Amino acid sequence: MNTKIEMVDEKNLNEDTIEEAAKIIREGGLVAFPTETVYGLGANALDPGAVKKIFQAKGRPQDNPLIVHIWDIKQIETLAHDVPDIAYKFMERFWPGPMTVILPKSSIIPDITSASLPSVGIRMPSNVIARELIKKSGVPIAAPSANISGRPSPTDVERCIEDLDGKVDFILGGEMCQVGVESTVIDCTVTPTCVLRPGGITLEMLREIDGEVYIDPAVMKKPDKNIKPKAPGMKYRHYAPKAPVKIVCGDLKKTIEKINEMVQNYIDENKLVGIIATDETKNFYNKGLVMSLGSRNNMPSISKNLFETLRSFDDKNVDIILSEAFEEKGIGVAIMNRLSKSAGFDITRV
Ligand code: TXA
Ligand code: MG
Question: Which of this chain's residues are annotated to bind L-threonine (predicted)?
């Protein structure tokens, strides 16, 4: 397939380019586009044939439901039913933005979109290109992250092209994604509301609306084959670069010591080691390839850079990646969730 790639300036939208992409969506094609979280791979959510192409392009398991993206809160009425008041409170507060709400689905959502579940995940993104694309296409857009299944989600257009060139009709390019990890998924079909995937809308923020909100305990655990996860996507090894990832967790000084010791052992085995550090710690590593995610005082920068850093270690063909850990507070919960999954929960405590 020939993929058309066009850049769009977020501050000065090229309406014709977005209309061209919207037409492809209307006609049943695939368009990759930026959102504030990660790039998405979109198709008309109401067209089973178009949605099927998403699964094929990504190599995605059919039992993993897609998020349906809207641009106007009124679209909820046609896509879901029995929407609880609390769901409206979350939507009014955090939309447009990095939050997906699971609701009982209406019959117009094809089974392939929701992987035959009785519910559907709906999100209103804030990125202007995404919003304009959804609006112009005139249909809700089903979009998983725009990566090949299992790889870290793309947070800039180059990574999106790397994974999807030749597999989709159109790639709309924008700026680097601001949040850098996928949306917070909240289940509003249960009481109290349960967080199925942590993201940019943090537990602390959700609790300002409802103090009872809790994080599904499965989020921070290694998937158990005997327990059926509430978000089917949670059971897959995710966000994984080619090299194995190992996390060292605990007191920062001891973490640095432990990582340096591990680095030396790998070097003795002739291995190329990547180290995921922070601005505060990077100078304490003098062997291996060191990359900083940013300052520990600026956790959003850490989440913004996480996937890009994992992917750039792939480019450098490292044999192993060692990472520091982060406090599971605010967006730190999402960061540690993605990092732990990319490491297959290989965590050394010091
Ligand atoms: O930020 C995001 O959410 C990005 C951008 C493109 O919007 N999209 C995204 O989609 O991350 P995806 O497909 O990579 O992840 C969707 C997650 C999966 O873990 C899936 O299992 C869960 O949401 N999910 C979707 N519908 C669900 C439902 N009805 N019930 C439970 N979990 C659901
Ligand atoms: Mg994904």
Answer: 37, 69, 123, 143, 183
